[in-house]
Amino acid sequence: MIRRPPRSTLSSSSAASDVYKRQNYLTDKKKIRSAGNLMPVVCVELLAVGEKVIGNIGAHPKSFVSRVARAGWGGQPPPFLFVVSFHIPCSKPHNYMLNIYAAADPRLQGSQPQAVFESFMNASKEEQDKKFKLIPRVAEGGWFVRKACGDPPTPAIMGTKVAMNCIKGAGYFEVDFDLSTSSVVGSIVGIVTGPAKSLVIDLGFLVESQTVKELPEHILCAIRMARIDLPSAGSHKNPYETVAFNMSRK
User: Fold this and answer.
1) pLDDT tens by residue, the chain, 250 residues
2) How far apart are CA 45 and CA 102, in angstroms?
């Protein structure tokens, strides 16, 4: 019998968030497993792009943020969206952009993790660069890819590794990364994209807690990328390259 390989998927996940800093981390340096994510992922986009880095996609009239804002919510405001966007350099014919959208839970308004996130959104760029953390994890893949990405999973403060820009817009907060700005990260991307169709990779995002008041840490959101067929992304028209919009920070 011929077994078909599992299909390519992009989905919400909690597997990337294996461990995080607990309440007493500053004294005992112990971490515990995450109980879940602060915000569920509600949309993921993987699209082919040219060399131009596209930022502030939340302001784009065809973005998921804009579509949510235009939808009817029964007189209630639309959910606040957290957006993470990666510009991923690859060999020709395409580079790629990966856009992740998560929705804030209004029931958590006023909670400690929500307060930490809001403080991060309102922080200076210097502070933001030092606190936004990515936890990558290769759930399925060869040992070489695992070592390249960090095995065991190694958290990375992204603003110290690559160009990072944060935008606070109407109804959304966005963090953009240009992975082409680091030769080291570019090399890791090259190692991962080759065998992408055989890999399962989890990505978890959080704000690093650096004071007692900010502990324990909470995973903002996480996704699982399973056996991604990158060439298929090039077959879809990228709406962000066909409509002019404000890409600035403000």
Assistant:
1) 333 334 555 555 555 445 555 555 455 455 555 556 889 999 999 888 888 888 899 999 989 999 999 988 888 889 999 999 999 888 666 788 899 999 998 888 888 889 999 999 999 999 999 999 998 888 888 888 888 887 777 888 999 999 999 999 999 999 999 999 998 888 888 888 888 888 888 899 999 888 888 888 888 999 888 888 877 776 667 777 654 444 444 3
2) 12
Angle at 231 between CA 92 and CA 66, to 5 degrees: 100
CA dihedral 88, 234, 197, 158 (to 10 degrees): 10
Rounded to whole angstroms, how far apart are CA atoms 226 and 230? 11
Quote the CA–CA distance of 116 and 112 in Å, as a whole number. Answer: 6
Q: Alpha-carbon distance 32 to 123, whole Å? A: 27
CB 101 within 8 A of CB 44: yes
Q: Which two tokens stand for residue 84?
A: 């993470």
Neighbouring residues of 178: CB distance < 8 A, sequence distance ≥ 6? 53, 87, 162, 163
Q: Give the three-class secondary structure for 105.
A: coil
pTM exceeds 0.70: yes
Distance CA 121, CA 163 (A): 17
Q: How far is residue 130 CA from its own chain's centroid?
A: 16
